[in-house]
Write a structure and sequence with these properties.
Elements: H1 2-7, E1 13-14, H2 15-25, H3 31-43, E2 48-51, E3 57-60, E4 66-70, E5 76-79, H4 85-92, E6 102-105, H5 108-121
Parallel strand pairs: 4-6
Antiparallel strand pairs: 1-3, 2-3, 4-5
Helix pairs in contact: 2-3
This protein binds zinc ion (ZN) (2 copies).
């Protein structure tokens, strides 16, 4: 069940979000069970644990792919880049088993929010003469 929750939807859920969904399916489930299952699935290679800007562990399908990570809202989007392992092996002189690559950006929605705020508040040049506090 836990595996299904993570794999369907491709949403990079946190353990807590997975727990809330699991609870809807099986109300008696406890958080510890979710954690145990997640740890086991990661150990078995059925899930991948990823961390990005907000350092919260999220769970993802195990297939090799990289992530675009919004620095504003923390949302992750999948991106398929070439496998750099061979180059990293050559560059490091070590046998690289895996790597995590996060590209940080501002997602479309946050960008729109920014633009809207700038329109509402006028240009960024804020007047320097404030009341003395
Ligand atoms: Zn965003
Ligand atoms: Zn992903």
């Amino acid at each position: 069940m836990i595996l299904d929750i993570v794999l369907c939807g491709n949403q990079h859920l946190t353990a807590e979000q997975i727990y809330l969904r699991a609870k809807q399916i099986s109300p008696s489930i406890v958080m510890a069970t979710v954690y145990n299952n997640l740890n086991r699935l990661v150990d078995e290679g059925q899930l991948r644990r990823i961390k990005a800007a907000d350092a919260v562990a999220r769970y993802d399908k195990p297939t090799r792919h990289d992530h675009l990570c919004c620095i504003k809202c923390g949302r992750l989007a999948d991106i398929q880049l070439e496998d750099l392992r061979e180059r990293l092996c050559a560059a490091s002189g070590r046998e690289v088993l895996s790597y995590d690559l996060n590209l940080y950006y501002i997602c479309d929605e946050c960008r729109k929010d920014d633009e809207r705020m700038q329109k509402e508040n006028g240009p960024l040049s804020r007047s320097p003469n404030r009341d003395n506090g």
